[in-house]
């Protein structure tokens, strides 16, 4: 499958490029709908983008924080202070350093048990947030794992074929195995989708995704995300080579 790819020299320039593309979208969303919604991804790759957003005057001061709403496209089912928590990572790199109102931060409620209820509670929160609007994030950030997973949608997961639920509890072949993830039913609505992919250990999965002929039935979950506006893949040279 053909990827709409942008190749940047390294992770810092990749992170800046994602921010530079995000700002006009944020401005337009706030002008049109009064708010900007972004679904964040976890893992290591986006950490640099979050910290540049918080630490660079030009980005931090240009952001209308009271209009920005942060969501997570997946979360590990762990306490919010766990080293494995995606929320914790975003809190430490971004949230703790910017004047975003607490009510605009929408983490997965991982204290809700069991995980299925946690997923339901988050879906209820999303449905309330979008109301009668189309359930489409202005920006959704995604990563890709070495076997093609994205969010916590792993190969062969029944969640890949989910048509109505937006959020599901899933068990995955990675640490920690219990996770909560957006399904393609919501990810395939996003207004703008950015994949962030860096490092030479992503080279082989990128070639495998590119070699797939049918994206809709691809064995690689990341290849199955096709919102109306095709994803843009931000790659560093090490991954793209
Ligand atoms: C997670 C993610 C996951 C991630 C990829 C890539 O919670 O693990 O959201 O889908 O984006 O595994 O992770 P890296 O950026 O660490 O390679």
Walk me through what this model shows:
- The chain is 32% helix and 17% strand.
- The longest helix is centred in the N-terminal third of the chain and has 23 residues, at 11-33.
- By secondary structure, the protein is of the alpha/beta class.
- The strands form two sheets. A six-stranded parallel sheet has the order 1-9-8-5-2-3. It has a three-stranded antiparallel sheet with strand order 4-7-6.
- It starts with a strand and ends with a helix.
The percent range for helix content is 25-40%
Counting copies of identical and different chains, the oligomeric state is single chain
Distance between the termini: 17 Å
The residue-averaged pLDDT reads 97
List the ions, cofactors and other small molecules found in this model. 6-phosphogluconic acid
SS element count, helices = 8
Q: Can you write the helix and strand succession as a string? A: EHEHHEEHHEEEHEHEH
- Radius of gyration, whole Å: 17 Å
Using the alpha-carbon principal axes, give the shape: globular
Biggest sheet strand order reads 1-9-8-5-2-3
How does the SSE layout of this entry go?
Layout: E1 4-8, H1 11-33, E2 36-40, H2 47-55, H3 57-60, E3 68-72, E4 74-76, H4 86-93, H5 115-130, E5 139-142, E6 167-171, E7 178-182, H6 184-187, E8 193-197, H7 203-211, E9 232-236, H8 237-240
Parallel strand pairs: 1-9, 2-3, 2-5, 5-8, 8-9
Antiparallel strand pairs: 4-7, 6-7
Helix pairs in contact: 1-2
Bound molecules: 6-phosphogluconic acid.
The site of 6-phosphogluconic acid (6PG) has 13 residues, from loops.
């Amino acid at each position: 499958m053909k990827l709409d790819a942008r190749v940047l020299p390294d992770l810092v320039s990749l992170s800046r490029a994602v921010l530079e593309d995000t700002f006009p979208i944020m401005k337009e969303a706030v002008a049109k709908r009064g708010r900007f919604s972004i679904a964040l991804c976890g893992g290591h790759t986006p950490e640099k983008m979050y910290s540049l957003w918080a630490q660079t005057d030009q980005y931090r001061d240009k952001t209308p924080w009271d209009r920005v709403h942060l969501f997570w496209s997946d979360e590990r089912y762990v306490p919010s202070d766990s080293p494995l928590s995606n929320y914790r990572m975003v809190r430490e790199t971004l949230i703790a350093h910017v004047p975003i109102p607490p009510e605009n931060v929408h983490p997965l409620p991982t204290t809700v048990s069991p995980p299925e209820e946690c997923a339901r509670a988050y879906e209820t929160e999303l449905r309330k947030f979008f109301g009668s609007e189309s359930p489409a994030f202005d920006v959704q950030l995604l990563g890709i794992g070495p076997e093609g997973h994205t969010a916590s949608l792993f190969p062969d997961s029944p969640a890949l074929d989910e048509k109505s639920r937006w959020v599901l509890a899933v068990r995955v072949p990675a640490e920690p195995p219990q996770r909560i993830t957006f399904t393609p039913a919501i990810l395939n609505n996003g207004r703008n989708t950015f994949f962030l992919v860096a490092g030479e250990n992503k080279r082989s999965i990128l070639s495998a995704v590119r070699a797939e002929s049918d994206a809709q039935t691809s064995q690689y979950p990341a290849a199955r995300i096709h919102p109306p506006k095709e994803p843009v893949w931000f790659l560093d040279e090490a991954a793209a080579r």
